[in-house]
Design goal:
The chain has one domain: Aldehyde Oxidoreductase, domain 3. With about 140 residues, it is of the alpha+beta class. The chain contains three helices and nine strands. The protein is elongated. The strands form two sheets. Strands 3, 4, 6, 8 and 9 form a five-stranded antiparallel sheet that branches.
Length: about 140
């Protein structure tokens, strides 16, 4: 089973270097890194800002997702960090990394990690548009 080296949800800016370093390993031939950022447009509407909120069970659910992927895909290590609180356009919202002996497993596990995180981990975003209206959206 892969080594789950870093899982966290934070209200401070995220570090690409921290997540990348967490999965570095001499036995890994490749590292897949995904970075989600706050974009200016969502579904043809101009975004002004957003805020992420998380349920108190967020770390337990994130660990469940990570453990499942580590058990199903042959990888060396994985890490995932998600931001909560108020974010501005361009801020890092989520960073996930996977190291594996080969790129195929790293890419596959990285995609599964971000997709399952977004669909199963209780993190939501409150998005405010330049028009002044706002909406709650499950973290995309």
């Amino acid at each position: 089973m892969a080594d789950i080296r870093l899982l966290d949800v934070r209200d401070a800016p995220l570090s690409l270097d921290e997540v990348f370093e967490a999965v570095r390993d001499p036995s890994a031939g490749g590292i897949a890194l995904f970075v989600g950022t706050v974009r200016t447009v969502d579904e043809d509407r101009e975004v002004q800002q957003l805020s992420y909120s998380a349920h108190p069970s967020v770390l337990d659910r994130l660990r469940d997702v990570a453990e499942r992927i580590a058990a199903e895909i042959n990888v060396v290590a994985l890490a995932a960090v998600h931001r909560v609180g108020d974010l501005a356009i361009g801020d890092l919202a989520v960073v996930v990394a996977i190291s594996a002996q080969h790129r195929q497993e790293a890419f596959e596990a990285g995609r599964r990690l971000i997709d399952d995180l977004k669909s199963e981990v209780p993190i939501w975003k409150h998005q405010t548009y330049t028009s002044g209206d706002a909406t709650w959206v499950h973290a995309d």
